[in-house]
Automatic annotation (TrEMBL):
GO terms for molecular function: D-mannose binding. It is a single-pass type I membrane protein. It is found in: Cell junction, Plasmodesma; Cell membrane. Residues 31-135 form the Gnk2-homologous domain. InterPro entries: Cell2Cell_Antifungal (IPR051378), GNK2 (IPR002902), GNK2_sf (IPR038408). The keyword Disulfide bond applies. This is Gnk2-homologous domain-containing protein. The keyword Electron transport does not apply. Its main location: other.
Length: 135
């Protein structure tokens, strides 16, 4: 009887340790793409708007992780060819996981919407969008 009780205690303690470890364990952000949308209008790579888009995408990657709610909007500083951007991450993500998700989102929207005036990618754990108008 005492042996069975000791065995049950060991099993219960082991299960508690496993449960705690599963809560502490980090996971990678889910970067599966739910939606990729690109504007039908394009700009030339040498156009000033290209600099605006590049600025906005980098700013979204760098600033979103430090904003409350992992939600950030930005605008490029180039008045002649403004670009607007918005990015969000799932609020259960750590800042590092949010950053990793946004790097993936930026790569996806940049390659998928190359030279498009607007683009949007929605992944499971983050989103990123840029346009030539406020939204």
């Amino acid at each position: 009887m005492a042996l069975a009780h000791k065995f049950n205690t060991i099993i219960i303690k082991s299960l508690i340790v496993l449960m705690v470890l599963s809560l502490v364990a980090k996971s990678e952000p889910n970067t599966n793409v739910n939606l990729l949308w690109c504007s039908e209008y394009n700009y030339a790579q040498e156009d000033t708007y290209a600099n605006s888009v590049a600025y906005v995408l980098v700013d979204l990657m760098n600033a979103t992780t430090s904003r409350q709610g992992l939600d950030y909007r930005t605008i490029s500083p180039y008045a002649v060819a403004e670009s607007y951007g918005h990015a969000t991450c799932n609020t259960v993500l750590s800042s590092n996981d949010c950053a990793n998700c946004l790097v993936s989102a930026e790569a996806t929207v940049s390659s998928g919407c190359s030279n498009s005036v607007g683009g949007r990618v929605e992944m499971v754990d983050c989103t990123m969008r840029y346009e030539n108008y406020p939204f």
